[in-house]
């Protein structure tokens, strides 16, 4: 039996260890025996404890000691821990209490939302005080939580890595090993077996120095390794690690671990067709799960017991077990077990030629496979239904299912090939590692004399190699120096082209930006013609600058193909249409013939556009009136062919090889070709294509062949993006009557004046000439948006952006970078430093304006989100971790000062270490409220929560949330909620 028929449920093995792992992580420093003598000892220690830390740790230990068999008693110690926290107001005790509450809810009530709230509360205290022993546990728990959550998978890795980092800093290998296991479990849950195996093996090597009682998780580490080999169909190794897991679990007294490993061994028995042995094993496993009331694993075991009976041809007993398992699965609404059971039940009926019944269960299995998006099972069941309907003589249904089966099978084969490649790579690396270990082991058994002889031989060989190496080094020394010098010259040349193009962009910006303003302001036709001429030539100059930069990138080897899927036919049509119009203006006959299928192809849009545009531009430019320009293209053998030809040329065949030389000019009377054709040649070579040029009967033709299949390891490959981008409404330049503030940072005064002129009508403008002074100004004035240059003295734009985003005062402010740098590296660096937008010079005025409006609109969405939230939720409101920390501070301070009617805006600013104006600007920009409004709103939101509970009257609630005047409380409440407190209570 193929293990993949039942291997997909192996993932559920990881759930069995959750309770043990949480208790181990929480109480690994307190591994006390669970007997009355130890409990008495803990109580005696608690009575003598001198500080809150000792008391909190002992109360947690007592909760753990009772938690295995007396939950009511355990809960009493949890309650005592909270009483101690409230009495002492100690951060460590609060952190311990909320941690325990989070773990308790997970185990006792299965309430993950409540659990997550408590863990986050604990995390606030732990991060504020850097309680490493708490942080490592809380991060580990959050990593576990998001691993098994259907959402925020990236959060799982983030928290697991944080926990691993803290464990390293602490130097605690037990925590470190446990967290490595959790990370391996994450990768296993994502079906990334090579990564999972790496972390399981590393965890096993670290925790092996501990006894099984100290590190009971070792049992599940070996189950994880066994499960991976089971998926690889390497049953020998799967059995080896399962047996090792049982040995560890026996020594640590971990019954659950033993049963998990026994389940794996039972599956191996079935694969080996040892059905009687499998029956005995699964009956023992079933007895255990029935005794502890675990319905999930009871159903899982019943299914495999049915498979064992089916293997012995005990049909009725197999049917009963399958039906019994199916009934439990339907009660639990468990898809993974149900799929396995339905499939085996349908196969059983099919083997007995009860095709009507098998059809019924195959159909149920198919619907469930589609529901959980299991392509492998969906394909298999569609095929089974086709065959079953054929046997039932339902030929039309059989044909329909076969039609559906063919594309599903193709998709599955492609998916399985990728998966198999990954499996083979992992198996190869693992086998290679084992061979190295065996070799080292054999070498360690050699006697001293033999080692001495080997050392002499090796020393001689090494000496000989050294002599050969020195000789080769001496021979190639001059060649290496020459190569290094050539490389240095190429780099200098590339830097020169890049720098000079950057220098051109700034004056071009100063030309184009005022030009755009004049074009919109002037209506005189003659003036518009002159402006159009300036605009056309500035665009041409910008094009030449871009070509220079493109060539410098190619020369330096930095330009890579960016392969993306798209409609090639539509793309080529969109490029050629403007040239048809230009040809008509020049009195030329333009024809186009595109024999390309209307479908998706993978290609580099930018490179092909540059090649076609330059060829057509030259053809239209150099063709005399009343002559022809032809553009054609087709695809054959996965090669795109592009042909551009024009008649009326006076070019000679002997000059064709010189066409692709930069700035070639055949004679003084003829205009040269610039660098356009040279760029085309370089781009075609980059694409690993060919370009051929011919002249025949006065017709000049360029034939370009480009392969549509590229080596992904040498290129940047971008897959199709299906995400929809929501349209964001334009923001207004004022918020609640307050004029928005814009900070412009550039060392060029003229550039600052151009940008200032664009925004001065609607915004208050601040200016700075370098990043260092801009940072001080931003911290003082808290602007609503920043527009900054990249290349500046003292502090460049990247450093400035990073400083803005990492500072609590300014982290929320959107930053737009303007730069002459157009490289992907510059754009990547901007993103890495959290810039919100990246525009190249010369910029388009309206694009810059819209970018500012869009970014401020995004901030307004968060402000509206805050106004709708009943309570402050930092992780949902904040844009980044710095904002989240700031909002957490606000939340903690408001919780502490809620009942204090004398708590003022000055007190609030002092608590946060800010000036009153800085706090006002930060809250206004971040949440669209003043400091006074924020304090009042948080009090009123807390009052609304108390009203829902219904334990107090309106007066008591008003005083509880810090209002001295009940009438003012009622007025404020109505202003916020549009109803009086009485009306609000009535509506609940």
Q: Would you give an account of this structure?
A:
This protein has 988 residues and is of the alpha/beta class. Among the domains are: 357-413, no CATH class; 562-714, Heat Shock Protein 90 (2-Layer Sandwich), CATH 3.30.565.10; 734-866, Response regulator (Rossmann fold), CATH 3.40.50; 869-979, Orthogonal Bundle (Arc Repressor Mutant, subunit A). Helices cover 68% and strands 8% of the residues. α23 (525-556) crosses α26 and α24 (568-585) runs parallel beside α25. The protein is globular and about 105 Å long.
Question: What order do the helices and strands come in, and which of them pair?
Answer:
Blueprint: H1 13-16, H2 18-27, H3 36-48, H4 52-67, H5 71-88, H6 91-108, H7 112-129, H8 132-147, H9 153-170, H10 173-189, H11 193-207, H12 218-231, H13 235-252, H14 255-271, H15 275-292, H16 295-311, H17 315-332, H18 335-351, H19 355-371, H20 375-391, H21 395-443, H22 448-521, H23 525-556, E1 562-567, H24 568-585, E2 589-595, E3 600-603, H25 605-622, E4 628-636, E5 639-647, H26 676-686, E6 690-696, E7 699-707, E8 716-718, E9 734-735, E10 738-739, E11 741-745, H27 749-759, E12 764-768, H28 771-781, E13 785-789, H29 797-806, E14 815-819, H30 824-832, E15 837-840, H31 845-868, H32 874-877, H33 881-897, H34 905-912, H35 916-927, H36 931-949, H37 954-960, H38 966-977, H39 981-987
Parallel strand pairs: 1-8, 2-4, 11-12, 11-13, 13-14, 14-15
Antiparallel strand pairs: 1-3, 4-5, 5-7, 6-7, 9-10
Helix pairs in contact: 3-4, 4-5, 4-6, 5-6, 6-7, 7-8, 8-9, 8-10, 9-10, 10-11, 11-12, 12-13, 12-14, 13-14, 14-15, 14-16, 15-16, 16-17, 16-18, 17-18, 18-19, 19-20, 20-21, 22-23, 23-26, 24-25, 25-26, 28-29
């Amino acid at each position: 039996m193929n293990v993949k028929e039942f291997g997909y449920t192996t993932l559920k093995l990881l759930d069995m260890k959750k309770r043990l792992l949480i208790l181990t992580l929480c109480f690994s420093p307190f591994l006390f025996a669970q007997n009355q003598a130890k409990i008495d000892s803990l109580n005696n220690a608690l009575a003598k404890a001198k500080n809150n830390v000792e008391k909190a740790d002992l109360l947690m230990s007592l909760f753990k000691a009772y938690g295995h068999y007396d939950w009511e008693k355990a809960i009493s110690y949890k309650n005592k821990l909270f009483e101690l926290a409230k009495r002492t107001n100690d951060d460590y005790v609060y952190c311990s209490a909320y941690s325990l509450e989070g773990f308790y809810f997970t185990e006792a009530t299965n309430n993950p939302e409540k659990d997550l709230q408590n863990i986050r509360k604990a995390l606030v205290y732990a991060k504020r005080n850097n309680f490493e022993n708490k942080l490592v546990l809380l991060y580990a728990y959050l990593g576990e939580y998001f691993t098994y959550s259907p959402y925020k998978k990236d959060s799982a890795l983030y928290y697991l890595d944080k926990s691993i980092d803290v464990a390293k800093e602490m130097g605690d290998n037990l925590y470190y090993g446990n967290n490595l296991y959790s990370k391996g479990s994450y990768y296993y849950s994502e079906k990334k077996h090579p990564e999972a195996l790496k972390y399981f093996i590393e965890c096993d090597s670290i925790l092996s120095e501990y006894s099984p009682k100290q590190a009971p998780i070792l049992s599940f580490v070996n189950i994880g390794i066994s499960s991976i080999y089971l998926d690889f169909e390497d049953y020998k190794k799967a059995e080896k690690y399962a047996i090792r897991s049982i040995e560890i679990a026996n020594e640590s007294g971990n019954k659950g671990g033993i049963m998990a490993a026994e389940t794996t061994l039972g599956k191996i028995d079935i694969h080996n067709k040892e059905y009687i042995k499998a029956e005995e094993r699964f009956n023992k496993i079933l007895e255990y799960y029935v005794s502890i009331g675990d319905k999930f694993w009871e159903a899982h075991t019943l299914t495999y017991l049915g498979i064992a009976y089916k293997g012995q041809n005990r049909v009725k007993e197999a049917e009963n077990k399958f039906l019994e398992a199916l009934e439990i699965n339907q009660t639990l609404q468990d898809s993974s077990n149900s799929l396995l059971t339905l499939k085996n039940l349908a196969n059983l009926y099919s083997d007995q030629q009860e095709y009507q019944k098998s059809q019924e269960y195959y159909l149920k299995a198919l619907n469930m496979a589609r529901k959980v998006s299991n392509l492998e099972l969906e394909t298999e069941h569609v095929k089974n239904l086709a065959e079953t309907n054929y046997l039932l003589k339902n030929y039309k249904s059989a044909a329909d299912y076969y039609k559906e089966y063919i594309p599903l099978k193709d998709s599955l084969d492609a998916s399985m090939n990728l998966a198999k490649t990954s499996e083979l790579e992992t198996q190869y690396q693992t086998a290679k590692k084992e061979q190295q270990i065996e070799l080292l082991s054999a070498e360690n058994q050699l006697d001293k004399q033999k080692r001495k002889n080997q050392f002499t031989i090796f020393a001689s060989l090494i000496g000989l190699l050294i002599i050969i190496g020195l000789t080769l080094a001496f021979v190639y020394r001059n060649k290496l120096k020459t190569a290094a010098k050539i490389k240095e010259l190429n780099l200098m040349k590339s830097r020169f082209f890049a720098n000079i193009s950057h220098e051109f962009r700034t004056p071009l910006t100063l030309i184009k930006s005022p030009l755009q303003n004049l074009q919109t302001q002037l209506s005189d036709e003659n003036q518009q013609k002159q402006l159009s001429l300036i605009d056309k030539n500035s665009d041409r100059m910008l094009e030449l600058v871009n070509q220079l930069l493109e060539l410098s990138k190619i020369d330096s080897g930095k330009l890579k193909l960016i392969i993306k899927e798209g409609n090639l036919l539509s793309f080529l049509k969109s490029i050629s249409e403007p040239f048809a119009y230009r040809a008509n203006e020049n009195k030329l006959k333009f024809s186009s013939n595109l024999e390309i299928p209307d479908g998706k192809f993978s290609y580099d849009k930018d490179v092909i556009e540059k090649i076609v545009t330059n060829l057509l531009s030259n053809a239209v430019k150099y063709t005399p009136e009343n002559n022809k320009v032809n553009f054609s293209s087709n695809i054959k053998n996965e090669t795109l062919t592009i042909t551009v030809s024009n008649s009326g040329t006076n070019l000679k065949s002997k000059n064709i090889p010189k066409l692709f030389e930069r700035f070639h000019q055949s004679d003084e009377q003829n205009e040269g070709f610039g660098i356009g054709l040279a760029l085309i040649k370089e781009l075609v070579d980059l694409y690993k294509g060919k370009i051929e040029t011919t002249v025949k009967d006065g017709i000049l033709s360029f034939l370009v062949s480009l392969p549509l299949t590229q080596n992904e390891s040498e290129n940047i490959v971008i897959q199709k993006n299906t995400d929809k981008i929501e349209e964001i409404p334009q923001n207004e330049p004022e918020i609640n009557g307050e004029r928005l503030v814009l900070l412009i940072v550039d060392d060029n005064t003229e550039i600052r004046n151009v940008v200032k002129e664009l925004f001065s009508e609607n915004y208050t403008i601040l200016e700075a000439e370098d990043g260092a002074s801009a940072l001080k100004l931003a911290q003082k004035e808290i602007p609503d948006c920043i527009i900054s240059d990249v290349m500046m003295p003292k502090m460049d734009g990247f450093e400035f952006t990073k400083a803005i985003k990492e500072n609590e005062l300014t982290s929320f402010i959107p930053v737009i970078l303007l730069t002459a740098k157009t490289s992907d590296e510059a754009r990547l660096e901007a993103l890495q430093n959290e810039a919100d937008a990246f525009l190249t010079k010369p910029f388009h005025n309206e694009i810059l304006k819209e970018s500012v409006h869009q970014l401020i609109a995004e901030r307004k969405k968060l402000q509206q989100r805050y106004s709708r939230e009943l309570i402050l939720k930092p992780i949902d409101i904040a844009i980044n971790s710095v904002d989240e920390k700031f909002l957490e501070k606000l939340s903690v301070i408001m919780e502490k000062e809620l009942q204090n009617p004398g708590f003022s805006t000055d007190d609030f600013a002092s608590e946060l270490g800010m000036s009153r104006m800085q706090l006002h600007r930060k809250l206004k920009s971040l949440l669209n409220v003043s400091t006074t409004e924020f304090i009042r709103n948080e009090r009123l939101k807390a009052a609304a929560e108390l009203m829902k509970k219904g334990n107090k009257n309106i007066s008591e609630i008003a005083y509880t949330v810090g209002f001295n005047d009940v009438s003012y409380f009622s007025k404020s409440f109505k202003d916020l909620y549009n109803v009086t407190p009485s009306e609000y209570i009535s509506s609940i």
